[in-house]
Amino acid sequence: MSSTSVTYKPLQFPDEIRLLVLQPARPGYDQPIKWRIKHERLCHKPQYEALSYVWDLGSAGGMKSFSRKTTPTNLSLALQHLRKQAEPDGRVLWIDALCINQKDVKERNHQVTQMGLIYSQAESVIVWLGVGN
């Protein structure tokens, strides 16, 4: 997962996480995926959904760029399908590949130890296997 186009602000607290706010798409438009990152503390019980998805393991060139951010192809498809048109403020998701600074080994290791808590506090966990045939 490349995060070269994403600028991560450091996490300040041991229970702090990043959440992705997925912007909705207008009906009938093939719009690029747009999202932003916000910081929350787990002790404040933020409302979010966690996304678990299949990475594009078989394709070395399987990266697409959306809204100046790089995401794996299968994750891009998940985000396209998960955009909610009825929520003008966007859908709040925790996605490991985008919410954890993958280049910061110390942060990544700490966030991995928090994943049980992150998933258990999510309102729901979405499992994305890919687009059906």
UniProtKB/TrEMBL annotation:
Q: Which InterPro entries match?
A: HET, HetReg/Transcr_Mod
What positions does the domain Heterokaryon incompatibility occupy? 48-131
Q: Which PANTHER family match?
A: ANKYRIN REPEAT DOMAIN-CONTAINING PROTEIN 39 HOMOLOG-RELATED (PTHR24148), HET DOMAIN PROTEIN (AFU_ORTHOLOGUE AFUA_8G01020) (PTHR24148:SF73)
Residues annotated as signal peptide: none
Highest taxon in the source lineage: Eukaryota
Q: What is this protein called?
A: HET-domain-containing protein
Q: Which organism is it from?
A: Hyaloscypha bicolor E
